[in-house]
Fold:
Amino acid sequence: MSDSAGQTSRVSEVANDRQWGAFTADGPWVLDRDHIRWASLAPTLRADARADVPRLTKPSRIPPGPRVVTVARHIGGALAPWFIRKRRGCYADPTESRAELSLRLRRAVETLGPTYIKLGQIISSGEGLFPSELVEQFKMCRDQVPAEPFTTVRLTVEQDLGARLEDVFEWFDEKALAAASIAQVHAARLRTGEDVVVKVQRPRVAELVRKDLRVMSYIAPHLVGRIPIAALANPPALVELFAETIVEELDFRLEAANMIDVATMLRDLGQDGYVVPRPHPTLVTRRVLVMERISGFNFDDVAGMKDAGIDTENVIRTGMIAFMEGAMVHGVFHGDLHGGNLFVLADGRTALLDFGIVARLSHERRLAFLRLMLSATTNDIKGQMAALRDLGALPRDTDLDAVIRDLRLDQTPIDPTSLSGEQMVAEVQRVVKALLGYGARLPKELMLYVKNMVFLDGAIARLAPELDILAEVASISMLFATRHGERLGRELGVDASTVEFDLTGVKASLGLDADVDGLTYKELQARRDLIQRRMREHVGR
Structure:
């Protein structure tokens, strides 16, 4: 190819960044990914952030400064009045008790600042894992945190961009669109005429986060083995994960680079159902991120979407496929899905927002995820256990056959709806005790993946309650085989043409008999509600 032809091809690619990225058709600017001022810094910045984590999460023998006292005072102050009222029998029922406790904890978290607000945000995405009252309260930590005054916002923007606000923006809305733990966002218009959103970091957030990580690292080892759930989750590992994610979130140049990487991944996969807002090629700094403004339906606005003729089932289906493909094929996925991070456009596509947490799987972990998925759809129990071991959920020397026996995975599954509350509680305790005995833990990447799956599970309840779960699992399995079978088979060392899907294991995980042909999400939720009600009734006795 001649130099002139190569230059022409290069100009054409730059002129249409949708050739390589999942962006909107009518963007306010065009990205040249090879000539973005801040993009080349991302690998070094990411490595530096990760190198800082071991120091921040190293447990100390003595309390790390007065911040421990501050945390204890606020959390204790929130719990003490509730505990006294509970002991006096002031609550009419457990729901009222949980509601007041959740409110008090949310207020304490907001008072303690960014690090604890971020923990609240994680809990807010855990529908089905945490009490509903706690989830609903902590949803307010997503975008209803009190905003910083505009004078503070102006100072941060002008310091980082090195110019007066009026020299960069034609107008800048003094009222924040949303405010969360690390930053808040404002609508604005550049002097060149483009409508944008400006993400501005809160002052002193980096200092506060580092102090709080040291406090958490001091407390975490004392929780190991104290309560079953905390032991299973491995508190020190959770603190380490939390540190890795939040430390990277403190530099918006990394978030902008994540936007480019996810947009590239989605385009490579041919995922036309998702779009990523374009970050500005020059107006990105450590504390300020200017990006394309995208508007759409709130992800919870089911009525609005349906009135606009949007197929909400297809929105969910596209989300499940894109999320799984990103993890399994590219080893990259958005690590913090929740309703505040998603807009549905008028044409039915979904816009992904907030790329502070993006999971990046190593080659070995990605292959383990692939083996886990393949084993689940072929009903290979030992294969699933081996994949979980390779993901770090079980120690490397674990006797997998013993785990299968102790968890009774080699036996006919029990329909949990056929058990009494007492029997269900005993079964949960038995499984947790067995897992703890083998040193089970929730590895970092798996926790982010599970958290996202929990969000998608809840989204199905709102957007597609009549969706046939079993049919969707079968359909997605076939789609993966068609699109990626040859490549994935080669990576896993199997002949893709000989793989036979067997949803018996999937049905067993839902407590269903092998001969059940279909299960809508609404039916699944009714089963869950029955199980939870029986367990609550037993525990409340």
